[in-house]
Design goal:
Alpha-Beta Plaits, 5 helices, about 140 residues, single chain, 2 domains
């Protein structure tokens, strides 16, 4: 497959990662095809943000065999409010705002790398949730 077609295909696959990077405070330097893989090169303001982008990459494709992500830390970049990934709540967990199409399993996969860990999120949000299959876009959930 020619590089330009591969670039379009892989940018589509990893589009959520590419669009999330600037929102997280990552300064992207390159997004192109190199040696038959999508290369994403950028600078993160801190380790938490770098880890979050990796969590998002693994949520798209846990093997990420068609991707090279070269994310370095540049502490001179503006630090995101609340330390980066979601915001911290009083119990030390994070908060996450549910998006359309989310499920607790999908959120657990994103944060823990294991969809079957959804019950941790459900238990931490019993005050807001009665059924793990019924979450709504816009809800703020605690991620323990």
């Amino acid at each position: 497959m020619p590089d330009d077609q591969l670039l379009v295909q892989l940018k589509g696959k990893y589009g959520s990662v590419i669009s999330a990077a600037p929102q997280l405070g990552i300064q992207l330097q390159n997004v192109h095809i190199e040696n038959g893989k999508l290369l994403i090169r950028g600078k993160a303001p801190n380790e938490n943000v770098k880890n979050e982008i990796w969590n998002r990459i693994k949520a798209v494709d846990s093997s990420y065999s068609d991707l090279v992500a070269d994310i370095s830390i540049d502490s001179s970049l503006p630090q995101p409010a609340g330390g980066g990934v979601g915001s911290r709540n009083r119990s030390g967990g994070q908060t996450y705002t549910v998006k359309a199409g989310d499920s607790l399993s999908k959120i657990a996969q994103q944060f823990y790398g294991d969809a079957s860990e959804y019950s941790k999120i459900f238990e931490a949000n019993r005050d807001k949730l009665n059924d793990p299959d019924k979450i709504q876009a816009g809800q703020e959930l605690v991620i323990p």
